[in-house]
Design a protein that fits this description.
It is built from 2 helices and 14 strands; from the N terminus they run αββββββββββββββα. By secondary structure, it is of the alpha/beta class.
Length: 176
């Protein structure tokens, strides 16, 4: 008799605990550290330019430009056109550009066009990814664009020579 009443009360008490644990997990995934600042771009907002924040960036709208943050959540329906650099990146929307992040997770609704440089990459079923993926130990440590440019402008057109000493010696014509 006591066992039956006890199991019913335990069953009632267990469900709220499980629900609480699930919500804590969901909250932890979106915001790894509750002490961090959370910045949000709403679904009706478009930002053009460079965005840099130290905490969590939640994107529900559209960004055209560079995005740098500690943790980035790109919600379903959000659109990013530009490069992203983050420690942790969760994508549910559309991204067109190069990604540099330690941990990258593509949800089933994600559409990514571009290269992903990462330490850890997770792609759920039905997510779309077109580009290349490269594992790197420190993906957010990228060389500056100035260092990446070649002296001849990346092979586009004639070589640019700023130093006359780089020129080969001029041919000499025989004198008559």
């Amino acid at each position: 008799m006591f066992g039956k009443g006890k199991s019913v009360s335990e069953g009632r008490g267990a469900a709220p605990v499980q629900q609480l644990q699930r919500s804590a997990v969901a909250r932890t995934e979106a915001t790894p550290e509750s002490s961090e600042t959370i910045s949000s771009i709403s679904s009706e907002m478009t930002i053009v330019g460079k965005i840099s924040c130290k905490g969590v960036a939640k994107i529900f709208g559209r960004v055209e430009g560079e995005l740098n943050a500690s943790n980035v959540l790109i919600a379903e329906g959000a659109q990013i056109e530009g490069n992203i650099s983050a420690q942790e990146l969760i994508i549910g929307g559309r991204v067109k550009g190069t990604i540099h992040a330690v941990r990258v997770k593509l949800h089933s609704t994600a559409v990514v066009e571009g290269d992903i440089f990462h330490r850890s990459l997770s792609i759920e079923e039905n997510a779309r990814f077109e580009g290349s993926s490269r594992r790197e130990e420190n993906p957010t440590d990228t060389p500056s664009s100035v260092q990446m440019k070649s002296p001849n402008g990346g092979g586009r057109g004639p070589a640019a020579i700023d130093d006359p000493q780089q020129l080969p010696p001029a041919p000499t014509l025989p004198r008559s």
